[in-house]
Amino acid sequence: MLNERADVTAWYKIWPLSSQRDFWIRTTWEGRPDLGSPTLEDGREVFDVIADGKLDEIPFPVWFERNTNSRGKRRGDILWGGPPTLVSQRFVDAVAELGVMGCSTFDVDLYSLNEGRVDGYVGFAENIEGTSEISSYAWREGAHSYAWIVSERVLEGLKARGVDMFEVEPFDEKRRFPRI
Questions:
Q1: Rounded to whole angstroms, how far apart are CA atoms 153 and 170?
Q2: Which 3 state secondary structure label does DSSP give 159?
Q3: Helix, strand, or coil (residue 148)
Q4: For residue range 46-99, what is the model confidence (pLDDT) as tens digits?
Q5: For a Cys staple, 22 with which of 3, 17, 107, 171, CB 3.0–4.6 Å?
Q6: How many Cα atoms within 13 Å fall on the side-chain side of residue 35?
Q7: How many CA atoms within 13 Å lie on the side-chain side of 24?
Q8: In DSSP terms, which residues pair with 122 in a beta bridge?
Q9: Quick one: which of 39, 22, 139, 162 has its CA closest to 81?
Q10: What is the distance between the alpha carbons of residues 106 and 84, in angstroms, rounded to a whole number?
């Protein structure tokens, strides 16, 4: 049933900061094609496996780097360029403190041409079943998305902890409300 939790009163759509001055990411590996998502031997697309946080199931090293189309000066709590999506450690800490279930994190290697290794970010696999207070905008398709639907409780909890470096707008597409 939609909005069956008493504490879910409103939903919001959040997504990464995306102006050219923001830090955009590019998922990469040795031999990565410029277009498309290659598949693994079992038929799964590489980008989907990475977005699920299953880097250990990929038979080659994967890393993230600053997309050179961005200047990378401002680092948001959610980085543009996903899925897969990288989030700040403070985003993850806040989500854990809020007790949000149904999402997971994974360690990543992130680099910037100018700075070398960039610390403070992890991979984040949002809920793709529409059963969490942080669900993929594309949960009805069972897919990851660059945008997420979050409950008012989560949005206010993030803001109260100073985690606010992302775009946000009220969300009213009732057919896409998570089923929690």
A1: 13
A2: helix
A3: strand
A4: 999 999 999 999 999 999 999 999 988 899 999 999 889 999 999 999 999 999
A5: 17
A6: 0
A7: 12
A8: 87
A9: 22
A10: 11
Structure confidence at residue 11 (pLDDT): 95
At 154 the pLDDT is 97
Q: How far is Cα 166 from Cα 154, in angstroms, rounded to an integer?
A: 14
Q: Are strands 104-106 and 25-28 parallel, antiparallel or unpaired?
A: unpaired
Pairing of strands 116-117, 85-88: unpaired
Neighbours of 101 (CB within 10 A): 12
The one-letter code for the residue type at 95 is V
Reported as a single tens digit per residue, the pLDDT across 34-46 is 888 899 999 999 9
* Rounded Cα distance, 31 and 41, in Å: 16
Phi, psi angles (nearest 5°) of residue 49: -65, -40
Tokens 């206010």 belong to 156
In the chain, alpha helices (H): 46-51, 89-97, 152-160
Lowest mean pLDDT among 70-74, 76-80, 103-107, 119-123: 70-74
Two tokens at 174?
């009732």
pLDDT at site 158: 98
CB 141, CB 98: distance < 8 Å: no
